[in-house]
Design brief:
191 residues; mainly alpha; 79% helix; flat
């Protein structure tokens, strides 16, 4: 019996698992790798949320957001107004269009570039604000999940919600009904 113990002790070590330690040289411990990956992902999300965290928008930023909402409706309403002007006073409209025909081609290109850059920059800004909000929400997701788990454990129908274990006094307290003084006072006031 001592020989078998010595041979197994040589293979598995004394209170160690030499076989496992040898395999871990060639292959990562999956459980430890998953824990490291989880920690790394949590740290990355926290860093991303910290980068995008700021106090909010100032009055000027909110005012400029309001001003930035004007060009599209003004362009649409201006186009409708031109259509209405063409219908009501075709001579006036034709004179204005003759003036537009005198605008050189490069100026039209410049106008197109300015409008494109304006709307493109606005679209990019709103997209980045959306990504910032998404990153902040994702950073709060683990805490929300923990809070939900805690709240779910407080349900009366969850397993072992009123488990008393080996405490006999608590078991009796849980099964015995007692008079609720607030309820009794309310009933006496109502008559």
């Amino acid at each position: 019996m001592g020989l078998i113990t010595n041979v197994l002790g040589l293979i598995f070590g004394n209170r160690r698992n030499v076989l496992r330690e040898t395999v871990e040289v060639f292959r990562e411990n999956a459980e430890a790798g998953a824990a490291r990956a989880h920690d790394m992902q949590g740290a990355a999300l926290s860093q991303l949320a910290a980068e995008f965290q700021y106090g909010g928008k100032s009055r000027f930023d909110r005012f400029m957001d309001g001003v930035n909402r004007l060009p599209r409706p003004l362009l649409a309403l201006g186009t409708l107004a031109l259509m209405g002007a063409a219908l009501t006073d075709p001579v006036w409209f034709a004179a204005r269009m003759q003036g537009l025909a005198l605008v050189p081609e490069p100026l039209w290109w410049l106008l197109g570039v300015i409008v494109s850059f304006y709307f493109g920059a606005r679209h990019q800004m709103k997209s980045q604000e959306f990504q910032q909000g998404l990153a902040a929400s994702m950073a709060r997701a683990p805490q929300v999940a923990r809070n939900i788990a805690v709240l779910e454990s407080l349900r009366a129908d969850s397993p072992a919600a009123a488990a008393t274990g080996t405490d006999a006094a608590a078991r009796l307290d849980a099964t015995e009904t007692e008079v609720n003084p607030a309820l009794r006072a309310w009933k006496t006031r109502r008559g």
